[in-house]
Structures are given as C-alpha cells and as structure tokens.
Amino acid sequence: MTTSENTRTCPVSPEVAQAAAAFHLFDQEMNPHAVLGAFRQQCPVARSEQLGGFWVVTKHADIQHVLKNPDIFSSAEGNSIPPVFDPIGTWIPLHFDPPAHGKYRRDLNANFLPQKIASMEADIRYQARKYLRTIVERGHGELVWEVCVPYPSMTFLVMLGAPVEDVETLLNWKNMNMIGMSGDPDAEEYVDEYIRPEYLAYFNALLDERVNSDNPPDDILTALTRANYGDRPFTRDEMLRVCTTLMIAGLDTVTAALTWTFYFLATQPAHRRQLIDDPSLIPSAVEELNRYFGIVSVARRATQDTTVGEQAIKQGDWVLCTLPAAGRDETEFPDADTVDFHRSPNRHIGFGTGPHRCLGIHLARLEMKVLLEEMVKIMPHFELAPGCKPGFQNGIVLSLDDLEIVVTDGT
Amino acid sequence: MKLSINSGECCGHGRCFTFFPQLFEPDDDGLGRPRSETVPAGLESLAQSAVAECPERAIVLTTPA
C-alpha cells in the first residue's frame, strides 16, 4: 500500500520497475550495489511499495539536495523506514531538525572534534597492533569477529565511558535494535519491551555514578551530564536518548566499513601493494574506500510538495537516501566503479552531508587510517581462505558477514 | 589570492584541514577555517586543489582585482 498518489516520472523497464517496487534494505538476498546501481542508471528516483511506500534516491547530487534541506526533508518523524521510536521518545540528535538539532549537537561535537580525536591516536594504534598480531601469530583468522567488530567497539566504549567488559552486552543491545528497526513489528515490540528498558537502565546507572562523583572520569558520559541545550542543561531523559544514538551509531559503522575494506584488500593485491609501497597514500585510500563502500542509508519525510531530481514528491512522502549508491555515481565520479587511491577530487558524501553529517567522522577516519598503517607493517599480505564466501548483511548499515583469511608471504 | 570558507555551506567534512593542513585548520566547532586570509606565496595551486576537494564547494578563492 502506498500513501502517495504520486507516480514515478522516469520511463523504466518493467524489470527495473518491479525490482524497485519490491526493494527494501533488509532483503538479505540482494546485492545492494548492483540493485541500487541499476536504479541509479535507469530510474534515479525509484519507487518502492514496501513498508508503506517510499522513494529510493541513488544519485549523489539528489542525495546532497535532500540532506542539505532539512526544512523540506525532515528527520523529525524518523530517519529510517519504517520509522521507529524509542518508547521514551525520539533519539537525539537523529530525529531532530534545525534549530533544535544544532542545540543538541553543539555540545556533542566537542567530544568528537578532530583536535580531540587526534589525542587518541596512540591508544588506537595499540589496539590495532594487538588485534592484527593475534591473527598473524596464528597465520589465519576471521577478520569480522576478530578485528572489525572489537577494534572500533573497544575504542568507542573507552571514549563513551562504559566498562570494556560490557562490550558484548552493548553489541547485543545494538544488534537487537537493528533487528527492531528492520520492519518486523513483532521484533520492534520485543525490543521496546525487553531490550530498551535494559540499556536505558544501564546508561542511567553510569550517568548517576558520574553525577554523584567528585571526580568523574573524562569521558562522553560525564560530558553528557554537563552538556547544555542552548542555555539550559540536558535533562536526564535527553542524555539517555543521546546514549541510545551513540550506542547504535558508534558500534556498527566503522565495523561495517572495515568489513568492506578488508574484503577489498584481501582480493586486490595490487591495491594492497600501493599502500605497502607508499603508506602516505593511506589517508586518501580511506576516503576512496568510504566513497566506494558507503555503508549507510538514511530516510527523510517531505514536509511539503517538492521535487527530487525530476521526480515530484508529495508532502508526507518518505525518501530513502542510499549513500552506498551515491558513491558510485558516474555523474560525480568519473570511472566510479574503479577504486583509485589517488582519486582527486573526491567529493564523496560517504559520511553524509547537511546538519546530520556523521558526528564520528574524524574518529572513523583515524581508526581506519591507523589500522591500515599497522596492516601494511604487520599483516601486509593476506587472502580469503579457500571456500570463504562473504555474504551481504543488508540493512540500514551494509556489511559483509564472513572474512576468513590466511596470512601469506605475498609471493 | 584570498581564501575563505562559506560557513553556510560548510558541513564539517574536514577534507580541507585533513588534506591541506598548510592552508586550513579546524575551528572550535570542527568546521574548516583558513589559517590565513591570504594564500601564502607558492601555495596557490594547492589552494585551487582544496577548492576542488570540498564536497559542498564551500571554499572560496578570489583574486582581488
């Protein structure tokens, strides 16, 4: 059932129209880049009839337009399809538009400033070496669970101020939330009733500890207890809604990006050789990998009749911006299907754009840069183990599920 | 050459201060800021590259008349 009486403008083959009508992110059988690429080429604003109906936007310029115009394309009714809300209210700052969005985000930004993130480099490098050495000493390993998951998660927990021994619990809560957002009403209800109260109580206790302490640790949770919305303090309720956002956004995204990065490097020895021969290329490679393997798709709801590209959009229509597709848009990126670590210019929006541009962008970049720097020294040569066939883990965040590798000597 | 950043367009991607630290630095809000209003001699070509690298086309380079 669709809420829009609007029809698709673009002329399109019956096959693509059918694929679009059936499209949703949680289809585990789909090759997301192939499917979204076909839409981008043949029907840049395609129409899905799933989950209440929504437009699928795949071109870089169109996505930039949507995300840079929050007054027309609002996050206030949700930023995923179908929209889900925490029972105590909306997630902060995800579900807010300017000007409220900026007031919530201002004090959060302070914890993620590039200057602040840079001071974490030594600790991050220590972690990178630790995880890679374990694999190298054994001669083989499974990178998703042995590196991609723990490496960014442990750093994030330390930054947040949650005890590191709780990492599996937090990952489980995060995973349950993602399942609860996947369009299954029973799953959403289960998460609402059993999972959300648990993590809210957990964060509440950690916030209490800091409020009651004379000398609280220098972490994000403490910073939250002192954060201001405009000229008044955050309420406890608001702090908890920020914690929810941080848990979901912080424990999933760099992990996902690393699964694509390692898959690419395991299967492309020539690209790996470029980084080994010239590690100064790594920051540019991190940008190029975030272009080619954009991972997140975000939704907005139209507040008025408008257009995206050549498609008329009605007030109330849902619009899904697929960053994985934006990165491979030939209109913006010549030879978009080629990964070129020297690509310049590289105006990708893999970290989003507009006011909701990824809060953790500098942390993500640093984590990826450091991991690759250590990889070229500690584990320069590796390949997929025989029989390893990574599968797509599709959803709001795209990743791969299995990266069994063997360490080689590069000959 | 004069260098400035259109704050209305800047979204804080940080490509300017990450890849062109000779010319840009992050401000207190993490947005880009030119280190100097005037492009130092010899860095004109670098400044032009920086302009091209901003996803929001927020960097403005002008040659005073």
Order of strands, main sheet of chain A, comes to 1-2-10-7-3
Provide the structure class of chain A. Answer: alpha+beta
Shape-level CATH architecture of chain B: 2-Layer Sandwich
Please report the two chains with the greatest interface, counting residues with C-beta closer than 8 angstroms to the partner's C-beta: A-B, 25 and 18 residues
How much of the polypeptide of chain A forms β-strand, as a percent range?
5-15%
Structural class of chain B: alpha+beta
- Total helix count of chain B? 2
Shape verdict of chain B: globular
Gyration radius of chain A (Cα, Å) is 21 Å
Portion in beta strands of chain B:
15-25%
The top-level CATH class of chain B is Alpha Beta
Write up what this structure looks like.
The complex is a heterodimer of chains A (411) and B (65). Chain A is globular and about 60 Å long. Chain A has one domain (14-407): Cytochrome p450. Helices cover 48% and strands 11% of the residues of chain A. Chain A has a 5-stranded mixed sheet with strand order 1-2-10-7-3, sandwiched between helices. A 3-stranded antiparallel sheet of chain A has the order 4-14-11. With 411 residues, chain A is an alpha+beta fold. Chain A is built from 17 helices and 14 strands. Chain B is an alpha+beta fold and 65 residues long. Chain B has one domain: Alpha-Beta Plaits (2-Layer Sandwich), CATH 3.30.70. Chain B is 23% helix and 22% strand. Chain B has 2 helices and 4 strands; from the N terminus they run E-H-E-E-H-E. Chain B has helices at residues 15-19, 44-53, and strands at 2-5, 24-26, 32-34, 59-62. In chain B, the strands form 2 sheets. Chain B has a two-stranded antiparallel sheet with strand order 1-4. A two-stranded antiparallel sheet of chain B has the order 2-3. In chain B, strand 2 and strand 3 form a beta hairpin. The longest helix of chain B has 10 residues, at 44-53. At the A-B interface, helix 15 and helix 17 of A face helix 1 and helix 2 of B.
